[in-house]
Amino acid sequence: SYLRLVYENDPSRLADITNRLALEVGGEAPMVKTYSFTQKKAPAVYQKLFEQTEVRLGDICRDPAIQTDFLKIVPLVHKRGKTIKVLPPNDLSLMAEDEILFCMRPSQKVYFEANISNIHTLDYLLTGIDHPKGSFFRWLENKQAG
Fold first, then answer.
1. Which residues pair with 100 in a beta bridge?
2. Beta strand 83-86 pairing with 73-80
3. Which residue segment(s) compose the domain that 32 sits in?
4. Which of 35, 56, 91, 138 is the 20 to 30 Å CA partner of 62?
5. pLDDT in tens, 69-78
6. The domain spanning residue 61 has which CATH number?
7. Sign of the four-CA dihedral 36, 70, 108, 128
8. Alpha carbon of residue 145 to chain centroid
9. Are 11 and 64 contacting, i.e. CB atoms less than 8 angstroms apart?
10. How many domains does the chain have?
């Protein structure tokens, strides 16, 4: 439905999208999925927004293994309330209840969903710091800092 809106309003824009998908998603058969940034569907993003931490679209599309790289994913359409934007920029600040239609390689889905659901993964993408997760390692970090 979002893609039909793009096609009906600006067919040349659809050609731009097709080219970007070929370049950034590649030859694998892509999947298209809409994600809502709610407490249930994207708990890590929702928590950061609740804490008034800025989360940008580009932050959640990065590869957690190589922080400077992006996943093979393209945000196609962003919907906030009644406002719809095609090919939203990476510097878009997310807000609770935003909806974004993504196109991605199926192999990237698990990484993307970890980015938006796992608070440790998202925190690492936002800060570049991999905080200790286990009790022993938190104790050790506090001991070394104190």
1. 35, 78
2. antiparallel
3. 2-145
4. 138
5. 999 999 989 9
6. 3.30.70.1450
7. negative
8. 33
9. no
10. 1
End-to-end CA distance of the chain: 56
Is the pLDDT at 84 greater than 80? The verdict is yes
Residue 144: its pLDDT value, please? 66
> Is residue 142 within 8 Å of residue 134, measured between CB atoms?
no
CA–CA distance, 78 with 22 (Å, rounded to integer): 20
Check if the beta carbon of residue 23 is closer than 8 Å to that of residue 72.
no
Tokens of 112: 């993307």
Q: At 59, which helix (H) or strand (E)? A: helix 57-60
Determine contact, residues 73/36, Cβ cutoff 8 Å.
no
Pick the range with the lowest mean pLDDT from 36-45, 86-95, 122-131: 122-131
Distance CA 3, CA 1 (A): 5
Name residue, tokens 């510097």.
91
Alpha helices by DSSP H, 84-130: 109-117, 119-127
